[in-house]
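JOB MANIFEST
job_type = single_chain_structure
chain_count = 1
residues = 221
[input]
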Amino acid sequence: MENGTPQLVARDLRRSFRMGPRRIEVLRGISMEVRHSEAVFLVGASGAGKTTLLYTLAGLERPEAGTVEFEGQRLYTGSSQTQAHIRNTQMGFVFQSYFLLPELTALENVMLPGMIGGSVRESAAEESLGAVGLGERLQHLPTELSGGEQQRVAIARALLVDPILFLADEPTGNLDLDTSERVFELMRECHRKRGLTSVIVTHNRDLAARCDRMVEMKPHV
């Protein structure tokens, strides 16, 4: 639903965590909008709440107050099945830890979400791996792949559902500078070719500065 309205809207998000006798306020009334096909990078020091905000925008972590709307639909109000359906069919996730099962091949790891949902699409998984440059590595186990290749498998898995919203939490955090650059360029290419809306958490300001918008979060003291 383009018609000039933002695709993702957060209003006055609040989230805190208890640490011993203290309650740490991580999100203090954060509001933001993300337009269709926009690439937004969240940057800031550790503890600033970047990951918490990303998870909240993705429907994974319920805020204590505030609202999140995606494609005009308010998250956290429907049934858990409805929320899961939105995430599984319209959102793709990539995390700093690749979360690949070591006993499965690259192809099987990409297929896994479909296998769980009962819709195994081997040809689509092969196509997704080919799109990230791993068409020759389908049968390799994670231990046979470099860190950058493992992250590309994770990106291929996220793209398998043909999402409209791509979310990533420090996707280059475990990679060296050269590999980070290649993975970043891959994500940017996927973003552009597929017309994705992307929200990405990173500590690398140089990479973030090349995208549409950089949002800096600061820790509360």
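[summary]
The chain is about 35% helix and 25% strand.
The chain has a mean pLDDT of 90.
exit_status = 0
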